[in-house]
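Final report, closing paragraph on structural work. Over the funding period we assembled a curated collection of sequence-structure pairs, and we close with a single example.
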Amino acid sequence: MKFSRNIKKIRTDNELTQEELAKILNVSRKTISSWETERSFPDIETLNKLSHQFEIPINQLLEKDLDAKKYIPHLFVKNHEKSSLKHLCLVQLVFIFIGYLTLLEVINIPLTSFILLFITLVTSHHISRNFPVNTLRIYKRNSLFFLIGVLLINSILGFSGLIRNIILEQPNVYYLNGSIVGKTIIIILLSISMYVLFDTRHLFLYKKNANLNN
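Its predicted structure, as stored:
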């Protein structure tokens, strides 16, 4: 049966265990196992969900051996696009480093926040173009935990120094308000930028694990 081979291919190519795929489709792990061993078959509602989640037409799920290029295009990132994305990530890392130095008040380079925002948006655009949203959504829970953790760490780093300055120097209200706004902007931008790099990591891991040549 084509479907049993296809469902297993979808799962293994996306590095999912039977239990992880079962959670995505709201079924049991035994159900996934029975599909892969041709002991049972999903209902139409589950087929629709599977089709939507991995962007595969139902007729391809049932009738054809899946061609990886038709449902996981992120594995086939062209060499020049991959190189461009790597360069963007390197530049982004440089400005993340500068952003942290700014957050810790070690240096103060004008326009750091705007440049970091621009590079983050460009990197995000590359990810969305090469990594289907429905597939990327599988990892959103881990990405969300990562974002929350980074936000907490950045907030502690940024505001601990501000609290120390308030205690030691007792700055005026205008300076204090400006510092709070500035640090909040840097904290948010740094956290979002790290979040985008975390998603970029999935793109490169897929490419590496696929063992495909462009």
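The first helix runs from residue 2 to 13. The CA atoms of residues 147 and 195 lie 6 Å apart. We thank the funder for supporting this effort.
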